Amino acid sequence: xxxxxxxxxxxxxxxxxxxxxxxxxxxxxxxxxxxxxxxxxxxxxxxxxxxxxxxxxxxxxxxxxxxxxxxxxxxxxxxxxxxxxxxxxxxxxxxxxxxxxxxxxxxxxxxxxxxxxxxxxxxxxxxxxxxxxxxxxxxxxxxxxxxxxxxxxxxxxxxxxxxxxxxxxxxxxxxxxxxxxxxxxxxxxxxxxxxxxxxxxxxxxxxxxxxxxxx
Length: 215
Ligand code: ZN
Prior knowledge:
about 30% strand, Peptide Deformylase, two-stranded antiparallel sheet, globular
């Protein structure tokens, strides 16, 4: 059985999709150019509320429909410092969780190794581009009940933690590219986004249709 870490804690098994995705309703994903994606989000203060739990469920549902690795609250149009993830890292370990008010820890220079790997974004439907980032990340924040939380990632999961924290500061991976590369990626998005959005729409339809009754 492959390893699963839920909220950073090794867990014997975990359903796929995660139960939050089943409870939640997929929301529209914001696209580069929308204002909510380009400014710093507000800290979460309403811990332990049904509204926050429902938002997290909806974010998991949206990420699942869009076949994403992770999604930030401003990608569903909500101005809050919050993201969720459900993804498998370079070593086959599945990571599932959510974090509010995340802060990336500064790693000592000798612990930083930059790796350049392709990165995409649900809010930039279509293109992928190589982005250099440290291959190790630690974020500190809170869970939905306000408990302190520390999440550590390596490889692709480290990339994901950094990409999502960037979102909450109004930064997209496009902002880490040269002007020319950014313009090329946006042109590619213009060509590809209709197909990506059509695929999401058809997956939402499946999500709404109840499975056939057992015989
Ligand atoms: Zn993104």
